[in-house]
Amino acid sequence: MRRIKTQTEDDIPIVEPWPEWIGDKLALTPPMGWNSFYGFGQNVSEQMIRETADVMVAQGLKDVGYEYIGIDDLWQGGRDEKGFLYPDPERFPSGIKALSDYVHSKGFKFGIYSDAGIKTCCGKVGSYLYEEKDASTFASWGVDLLKYDYCFAPNDYEEATRRYTQMGNALKATGRDILYSVCEWGVRSPWLWARKAGGHMWRVSFDVGDCWDSPRNVASPIGILTAIDAMADLEQFSGPGGWNDPDMLVVGLKGTGFIGGPGCAEIEYQTQMSMWCMLHAPLIIGCDVRNMSESTKRILTNKEIIAIDQDVLGRQGYRVHRKNGLETWKKPLSNNHIAIALLNRSEVAVNASVEWQALELSQHKEYVMRNVWRHEDIDILSPRFSQTVLPHECKVFVLTPKE
Ligand code: GLA
Fold first, then answer.
1. What average pLDDT does the segment 337-361 reach?
2. How high is the pLDDT of residue 392?
3. Of the four, 127, 194, 276, 364, which is 20 to 30 A from 357 by CA?
4. Which burial class, exposed, middle or buried, applies to 81 when counting CB atoms under 10 A from its CB (0-12, 13-18, 19+)?
């Protein structure tokens, strides 16, 4: 157990978290990037990926830390007579190596997708029985991240761990640093074994759709709230080198994405960003950044919320209180800073009154409290504070101890 529950924050020792887990140092903080699937599905192409790379530089997404540009499913053409994978010649006429070179030339890392079964989730050719061959193909193309899905594969846990380990070993054997993203949707508790299989992140839930609330479901995407609930209580399994992954950011899809869903209000997208950062989750953008609105850009590029996600202590936030739809989450940060989130799941505005004690904070310590969305400091006069939280809003504060 990683979280040490004690009376006050003062009692929690500052630890170098999980040095034995860190492994190859590829994911010391949660990976940040962009992925093609939820925005584009089958409309992925080399032209679109190039434009995305250009825009991510021009719009400042690269500057705030988004690093990986990943093609998801539906890039595949098939296997040639020697068993080598090749891309869809119409969508990728220049080949994957040329595309990866372009992405690298813009200062990004390049991601690709395959599946541990005979076919991918969209029915393209999978990597089963071709693990070593495909891993070395990916390495020769300059791939830096592999998202590895689990459609058309047996249900059982032993076979899943075996297949993920086999690809994990194959990636390592290439000698190239390839971040390994395990995607079996949390069905077989991957937080217990994915790190050992070589994984640097592992999905804890089914696909997140462009919707606020929708229950856990294998056949259709889940809502933002459901993904948050899937992450709750898993904090002891996440840390430098390997992260719980509640799936991609639907911020900015606005009901037009391939993943489906009615779309979310701006405040709900901001809440997704807030909670993903509180949960120390990978931040993988799903929308078409070429047509980002100002509000989408504001949410995705807020450096103060991203700093919470990328904090070097690497601790996933946890829920300390929930009542009548209002939740309080806490996330210890480096240098004794603390992030606090107030999440209002309900349909009415709530006046939240929070006691230091409920947050396991010392009554004797004074803090400067910063609202990371309003970019302003708030004076706290006593070991409690109150805030109005709008329906579906998540307010996030960073507490800095006063000397
Ligand atoms: C699964 C994954 C998604 C996406 C699709 C591609 O549903 O969970 O994230 O990669 O497959 O087909």
1. 93
2. 98
3. 276
4. exposed
Ligand 1 center to residue 73 CA distance, Å?
Answer: 7
121 lines ligand 1 (CB under 6 A): yes
pLDDT in tens, 278-318: 999 999 999 999 999 999 999 999 999 999 999 999 999 99
Question: Is 37 close to ligand 1, i.e. is its CB under 6 Å away?
Answer: yes
Q: Which atom of ligand 1 is nearest to the CA of 120?
A: 12
Q: Which residue from 38, 40, 42, 72 has its CB within 8 A of the most atoms of ligand 1, so it is best to mutate?
A: 72
pLDDT at residue number 275? 98
338: tokens are: 């603390």
By the 10 Å C-beta count (0-12 exposed, 13-18 middle, 19+ buried), 356 is classed as: buried
For 102, half-sphere exposure in the C-beta direction (CA atoms, 13 angstrom radius) is 18
Between the CA of 41 and the centroid of ligand 1 the distance, in Å, is: 9
Q: Would you say the pTM of this structure is higher than 0.90?
A: yes
Catalytically active residues are 149, 207
